[in-house]
Amino acid sequence: MTEGQQRTAGPGKGEPDALASNRPGWTADFPSVESIVVDGRRRVVYTGPSMNPTLRVPDILWVEPYGKRPVRAGDVVCFASPELDTNIVHRVISVRPSSPVPGPSSPVSGLRSSVLGLPSPVAIRTQGDNNPLADTRVLAPADLLGRVVAAQRGTRLRSIHGGHAGLMVAWSVKLGKAIWGVVAGVASAVYQSLIQGSRFGFLLPGGLRPRLVSFKGRDAPIFRVLMGGRTVGHYDYRYHQWHIRRPFRLFVDERTLPDPKSKD
What we know:
There is one protein chain. By secondary structure, the protein is of the alpha+beta class. The chain has helices spanning about 5, 105-115, 165-195; strands spanning about 15, 30-40, 40-45, 60-65, 75-80, 85-95, 120-125, 145-155, 155-160, 210-215, 220-225, 230-235, 240-245. It contains three helices and 13 strands; from the N terminus they run αββββββαβββαββββ.
């Protein structure tokens, strides 16, 4: 029994897939899932960052087959990736009629679909809510294992919206990231401007003001900068410079610190 199955309630035959986190050197922002089938419904354990914050590790996802229901833009779907040898959970961003394949059989197959009332072929594009670009692979309805209808985080089970509501969720995630990017950029600029000027250590009470301490090391003394009982900086002999953690550079001016020399 896999880890994902142990976290899933109910009996069922396991259908484990390889986890992306177990792949050496894995860096792509694709989630992978371990899945089992319980009472005809697939349950998967979500991993990966590409659907944050909508989904997070290790949410348990409830996946239902589409059956005869149409795939809608905004749905969160689970599909197999032959290239990555795992399952992926992303959101549908578009569902459009697929282009007919050139050749003498195209008109016949198109006519046959319309006469028999069969659904026309569609092209499905997907993208992770936290990914900047859409997936390169174009899917067909047959590629989908199903739609994610709910996610369990701890003891809380919540619905995962699809269709127009799902598109609004994806839009709100991207808007939040854009706003945070602007705020973070402004805050970083203000911070950099402040640390170029005078430091604010003099505003701190005596017990919290920066102080330099040293310890005997094997090859050279070890220098630390403390504020209260917390280490906020150290001297790096490899690069011959001080490293002060944020936001403590507002209170510590590296230019006033001594320049220790490594023992050769």
